[in-house]
Write the structure tokens for this entry.
Amino acid sequence: MTDTTQTARRVVVTGLGATTPVGGTAPQTWEAIVAGRSGVRTLEHDWVAEHELPVTFAAPIHTDPLEVLKKVEVRRNDPSGQYALIAAREAWADAGAPEVEPERLGVAIGSGIGGVHTLLSQWDTLKEKGPRRVFPLTVPMLMPNGPAAAVSLDLGARAGAHCPVSACASGAEGMGQALTMIRNGRADVVVAGGTEAAIHPVCIAAFAAMTALSDRNDDPQGASRPYDVARDGFVMGEGAGIMVLEAEEHARARGARIYAYLDGLGMSSDAYHITAGEPEGAGAARAMEEAIADAGLATDDIAHINAHATSTPVGDVAETKAIHRAFGDHTGDIAVTATKSMTGHLLGAAGALEALLTVLALHHRQVPPTINLQEQDPEIDLDVVTGGPRALPEGQLAAVNNAFGFGGVNVALTFTSAS
Amino acid sequence: MALSEQEILEGLAEIVNEETGLEAEEVQMDKSFTEDLDIDSLSMMTIVVNAEDKFGVRIPDDEVKNLTHVKDAVSYIANHQG
């Protein structure tokens, strides 16, 4: 593997937290993902029938926030903020609650949609009860940076509380922003990731209206099937994935456990179409190449990709083309997985959750499987991990996580193993 | 039938607990909403609106700033209840 000769300080992952459709914590989520368990289910809400929604299932959060947070915290935070608080506290505790000056501690938690539940429930309140009954915390609850702000208040982080908003790339961009903050010397520790809570009838109707969602209502657990010939769209998920990222010397000085290095960030924009990715994958390839070069590595060094792979007919093929474009002959040597087959698509939290799963894949040297892949699309000539987890070899390892968003946003992150 | 001040205090304490998580026993007549109970102006507005619903009174926005202590709110509600 190419030796890194970076002048910038390196960034390590020292804490992990997640609340997802398959688990209430990061270890619970990992255990479910390795076992190939789906978090997709038929929605029980009355509003599904009331609005005659064309899609009747999703991948809702596994653990009710009321089981974890105080009642008043649930009341004062949009669900997207609740998930971020839960995951951030877990990540912080997992990192050993690092001692760091408040001015050297930052937050970068992206969200694609923001507090849509709050906005729309208060719209109902306004119509039914008038302006005086609109909840005074509506604005901080609906603003997309509400979760980042709530976490910064909770931890006393004063180096900056940022919220990148780039649709389904938001969470990955949060990681990228944290990397940049630490490299630039603005912070020593950054709590970073993404959060989303958009399983709301309006969002389901809107994504369904653009035919982005699978409508396999009679088989919810088989609906998210990236790379399969019968895939017909993505499945809405929700939750948060958050990491504690730290300057290597800071983590070493306190003897922290290091899961992996975050060594590279690549970003590009397609300028092609407001929602569709560029079909030849040029922009996505550029993001991956940049992320690998930024890590001081060559494309041949990459052993594993956690793909964006949302299970849409067009998107999965475009990403495949991008991977071929970036990796050439090495493509067939890369263990690719699409964990959205189990979690659904967490939108603004997706890139963060999948970055976290990439870190755990390096840490445990095990790539989780892609489920529901019964007949691989011949256009998708990738080595997809199916049928169970696959072991990664000993020694230095590097992996890439992709996240793409509406608006033509492409983000790629390169992680390398701790040893 | 009009509620006693004690009944109003208990009802108000429930509202404060719901909004802030503060134990209902903490809400006593001589406590200041801001100084003692750490209730900010945003939470105060929610408490006022919920108190209006619960006690069937109207508390104008201009009046809210005069309700600095729990006893002020209790006596306002006692004097204006339907």
